[in-house]
Amino acid sequence: MGMETPDDLSINCTNLGNTSDIFGKILEKFQVRKKASGKLSPLQQLQRMFSHKESAPRRMLLVVVDEMDYLITRDRAVLHDLFMLTTLQFSRCILIGIANAIDLADRFLPKLESLNCKPLVITFRAYSKDQISNIINHRLKVLEYDVFEPMAIEFCARKVAAATGDMRKALGVCRSAVEIFESGLQDSSDKGAGVVTFDHMDIALSKVFKPAVVNNILCLPQHQQMVLCALANTFQHSRKKATTLGELNKSYIEICRSTQVPAVGMLEFSNMCMILSDQGYLKLGQSKEDKLRRVTLQIDISDITFAFKGSRFFEKCLEQPKF
């Protein structure tokens, strides 16, 4: 159409030291020397430049602002001023913003519409199962060998699409599944070739999509985690709903002996159980003698086994004889 190709500028807001630094970056692109404008801020220099035909640049500038959510401040002044730059009479800015908040303009900048500056909003839907699967397979085409079982990729795509539709999460799960596969090779005497299976992917997905209680279990100190394993061993194949602190201690000591981890004394063991009780993992009854205190599990055994899925050490802990 006889129009000049615009200059372009890409800005990732996570790299800005201060939200208002974005105006300095736009000003630099127009190659304007700041000294010439005295004490004016970059924003004021841009506003002055776009208010007079003589000072306005000839070429248009396409500004692509990624992670625009980072520009949201208490008074929202930076976001507001950024959008308003495009409305000045001799403005040379075309603004494209990319944000996670799909309602960013309506929620944080409601005045834009009354100022005839409401942006056109294009909402990108989350990735579907087929799209996730296609992207993963496309990336794998550069390799001359198979890395995943087709069923493993489909399982990953289905799970991520149903949960978030986040492509980055899907790629992260695949990376984790490969690491689990490699870890298995290092622990195995069979160093032959293989592929990432459905089971590897299942473990990787379990680590990503786990309930809050599972995250909390994984953050506990090792000996407290071993106490939970002892509790799981006690109740998993038994109709009993409760045990005593003394019996639980026996199960814990057996786990320590099997895994070659030095066990703590009875007093410290009792204190650990009190901490776990305060955090809601178990319930401790009252008794004159510590060893006779009644112990009941307050979380599902499946949460304990799920938390330690894929950990050879804790899977061994959960294989101990039940008391």
UniProtKB/TrEMBL annotation:
Gene3D superfamilies: 1.10.8.60, P-loop containing nucleotide triphosphate hydrolases (3.40.50.300), Winged helix-like DNA-binding domain superfamily/Winged helix DNA-binding domain (1.10.10.10). GO terms for biological process: DNA replication initiation; mitotic DNA replication checkpoint signaling. Coiled coil: none annotated. It holds the Pfam family WHD_Cdc6. Keywords: DNA replication. GO terms for molecular function: DNA replication origin binding. Residues 228-308 form the Cdc6 C-terminal domain. InterPro entries: Cdc6_C, Cdc6_ORC1-like_ATPase_lid, ORC1/CDC6, P-loop_NTPase, WH-like_DNA-bd_sf, WH_DNA-bd_sf. The keyword Hydrolase does not apply. GO terms for cellular component: nucleus. The keyword Aminoacyl-tRNA synthetase does not apply. It comes from the Eukaryota. Belongs to the CDC6/cdc18 family. This is Cdc6 C-terminal domain-containing protein. The lineage of its organism: Eukaryota, Viridiplantae, Streptophyta, Embryophyta, Tracheophyta.
